[in-house]
């Protein structure tokens, strides 16, 4: 999936749109956000969670979105993950304009393009690790035999070959998060979107998970980590800082 | 919807049932009660219908019933009817000779019960019929051993009697009854035959009868009042196609003989098996309506139980719904998952209900006089209704689940 894309190596702030715009976005970018607004109606008052955010993310990047609570980073994550649509602005994901899609189209995009990793793992408690990993494939319409094969591969990739038939309550926190990562990766999505992935883990296990992210990145996956912890953000290659619904800083750190 | 989706949904449903055994069992019980009610009600109605149709059929091929009373089904006659002039043997004879659509006429005198004695044994319950030799042909009921009443018995007013198998059992359990001397209401009679068995009608034996020549009956019981003694005429038309014309001819002949003025209503009653069936169907129609309403209410209650539990289930699993949506479940996926869960619940309830209903109707057949019968289509009906209840009462909770916003659902604790 990466052979068609020429990855630019941005050495500076990418808020300013590159010169190769087509239809208002750069088709070489995996993610293109243009002047994104998200407004909530709270009673009679309008609250702007995002004030005209624009950025691009090329394929294969490892990026952290950081900001204090209330900064709008969760709203941004929901938009990137296609769980929500912007009030205003354009969002291209892998060449598709997802900013005006309906619920079911978004569900399809989430299934094909996005792999979620949550702070609290969000595994199905009564299903085995294997079945949890198969879940996106079920909704993706993959046949049972192919599904088994793909789920096994994904679990092997996160070193859980011997835990496939265990249920979440029989697994440690780190193992659960690895099941969740396998679930996120099983469909070969365009982006791996992690929301505070180490928030519920001890420091040793956190380090393990962050090492895993690093490995996945080196294998060519695009990874976006949303966090409020600076040491987690510093593992990424690029950090976007959000404050008061706007991008405060967008810097390449390695 | 693909098979894979259905399978995933069904697995999820069984999972939920396993995890919440008591809750699911109670919900299933609610649906079962509804389905049992439906099956049981249907089986009663069907049983009654079938028994009645069978009996009507066995009474003879399309006979017509003529008496001075209006046709009724269990309703006692009013005073006007009781004071009407009796039908007579001459009327019966006129029907036989004058009506071309009639194949046979059987005038009958009936005494509600008679005492019959043989040596030291006695029975007080048999119905005593005074009949003619035409009885066998008109009713399609034949003597099994010995002989039936002859013209000579009629002329001689002989003291001869043919007995039903119940009476034979009561008085002659271990010996041949033919040619034995018995006493009926104290008078001496000779048994000349035993009727073929007829079986039961609504749990009442039809074999507890004795038959004597109608002339002999008039000799011994001329003044017994109604309703102890009653006279009526059974007519057998040439064939089923002649029932209507035979009834018209009977009406014409009787109106003339009883001098009913033109335009006045008949002062006698004519009914065929079909008209009996009509009356019966009216009665059971009303009964069926009541029973159907009861079933409907029972199903409603079961369905509300399902809806209640599905709403709880949706709320409990809000987070799970969020996860499923996050990994790509569409609204249709979620809707069908919860719908199938509801249908699985009600289908199990339906099957359990079917089993219980079937057993209940079997027990009812064995231990109560009311017949019960579960037709094959009622089984389909039970399963269909329970699935429909699942869909109808599961739809709203499932739609609620499908509509959930994934962000809110994921945030749910």
Topology:
The complex is a heterodimer of chains A (254) and B (413).
Chain A: E1 31-42, E2 45-57, E3 62-66, H1 73-80, E4 88-93, E5 96-97, H2 103-113, E6 114-117, H3 129-139, H4 144-157, H5 173-185, E7 191-195, H6 203-218, E8 222-227, H7 230-233, E9 238-243, E10 246-252
Parallel strand pairs in A: 3-8, 3-9, 6-7, 7-8
Antiparallel strand pairs in A: 1-2, 1-4, 4-5, 9-10
Helix pairs in contact in A: 3-4, 3-5, 4-5, 5-6
Chain B: H1 3-19, H2 21-58, E1 64-67, H3 79-82, H4 89-98, E2 102-111, E3 116-118, E4 121-123, E5 127-131, H5 135-139, E6 143-146, H6 151-156, E7 160-163, H7 165-171, E8 181-184, E9 187-195, E10 200-201, E11 204-205, E12 209-213, H8 214-220, E13 229-237, H9 243-257, E14 269-272, H10 273-316, H11 318-326, H12 331-367, H13 376-403, H14 406-411
Parallel strand pairs in B: 5-12, 7-9
Antiparallel strand pairs in B: 1-13, 1-14, 2-5, 2-13, 3-4, 3-8, 6-9, 7-12, 8-9, 10-11
Structure write-up:
- Chain A has a domain at 59-82 and 112-252: P-loop containing nucleotide triphosphate hydrolases (Rossmann fold, 3-Layer(aba) Sandwich), CATH 3.40.50.
- Chain A is built from seven helices and ten strands.
- Chain A has helices at 73-80, 103-113, 129-139, 144-157, 173-185, 203-218, 230-233; strands at 31-42, 45-57, 62-66, 88-93, 96-97, 114-117, 191-195, 222-227, 238-243, 246-252.
- In chain A, the strands form two sheets. Chain A has a six-stranded mixed sheet with strand order 6-7-8-3-9-10, sandwiched between helices. In chain A, strands 2-1-4-5 form a four-stranded antiparallel sheet, with helices on one face.
- In chain A, helix 6 (203-218) links the parallel strand 7 (191-195) and strand 8 (222-227).
- Chain A starts with 30 loop residues before the first strand and ends with a strand.
- Chain B is α+β, with helices and mostly antiparallel strands.
- Chain B has two domains: 3-55 and 280-411, no CATH class; 101-238, no CATH class.
- Chain B has 14 helices and 14 strands.
- Chain B has helices at 3-19, 21-58, 79-82, 89-98, 135-139, 151-156, 165-171, 214-220, 243-257, 273-316, 318-326, 331-367, 376-403, 406-411; strands at residues 64-67, 102-111, 116-118, 121-123, 127-131, 143-146, 160-163, 181-184, 187-195, 200-201, 204-205, 209-213, 229-237, 269-272.
- In chain B, the strands form two sheets. In chain B, strands 1, 2, 3, 4, 5, 6, 7, 8, 9, 12, 13 and 14 form a twelve-stranded mixed sheet that branches. A two-stranded antiparallel sheet of chain B has the order 10-11.
- The interface between A and B is medium-sized, with 28 and 23 residues.
